[in-house]
């Protein structure tokens, strides 16, 4: 064997060894690429699921946002209504207060009137009592006068103009 043949043989063996190592490397690389491919496929599925869930979440959040807007609007209307009712209650409270003041003033006037009537009745009662006393005194005097006059008529003295009573 000459040197060229040995060289060719060494080159051929080296080439076979190189092919074996390259093919092993390529098979391993193929396995890695298959793993990467399945990982990418799973990632795509997961990403699709995440996108679907994100879309559902966006729809749900939009629905919740709309409900929140409606709730806020209803709350604002309710607050406005409560303010208006509170204002009308203020007017009612002022009216009740004024009625209370009027009743209080009326009670005071009724008390004053009752006191005046009571005092007038006392004065009138005293005057009536005095009048009754004067009437009784007048009646007593009249009775005495009549008795004296009848007594004189019996005694024979019938002087009507007698002023000695």
Automatic annotation (TrEMBL):
<protein>
    <recommendedName>
        <fullName>DUF948 domain-containing protein</fullName>
    </recommendedName>
</protein>
<feature type="transmembrane region" description="Helical">
    <location>
        <begin position="6"/>
        <end position="27"/>
    </location>
</feature>
<dbReference type="InterPro" id="IPR009293">
    <property type="entry name" value="UPF0478"/>
</dbReference>
<dbReference type="Pfam" id="PF06103">
    <property type="entry name" value="DUF948"/>
</dbReference>
<keyword id="KW-0472">Membrane</keyword>
<keyword id="KW-1133">Transmembrane helix</keyword>
<keyword id="KW-0812">Transmembrane</keyword>
């Amino acid at each position: 064997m000459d040197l060229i043949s040995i060289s060719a043989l060494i080159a051929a063996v080296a080439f076979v060894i190189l092919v074996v190592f390259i093919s092993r490397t390529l098979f391993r690389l193929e396995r890695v690429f298959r793993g990467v491919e399945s990982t990418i496929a799973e990632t795509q599925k997961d990403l699709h699921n995440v996108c679907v869930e994100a879309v559902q979440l966006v729809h749900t959040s939009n629905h919740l946002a709309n409900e929140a807007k409606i709730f806020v609007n209803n709350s604002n209307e309710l607050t406005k209504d409560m303010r208006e009712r509170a204002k009308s209650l203020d007017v009612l409270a002022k009216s009740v207060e004024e009625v209370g003041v009027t009743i209080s003033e009326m009670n005071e006037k009724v008390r004053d009137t009752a006191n005046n009537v009571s005092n007038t009745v006392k004065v009138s009662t005293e005057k009536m009592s005095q009048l009754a006393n004067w009437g009784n005194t007048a009646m007593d005097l009249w009775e005495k006068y009549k008795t004296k006059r009848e007594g004189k008529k019996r005694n024979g003295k019938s002087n009507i103009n007698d002023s000695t009573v």
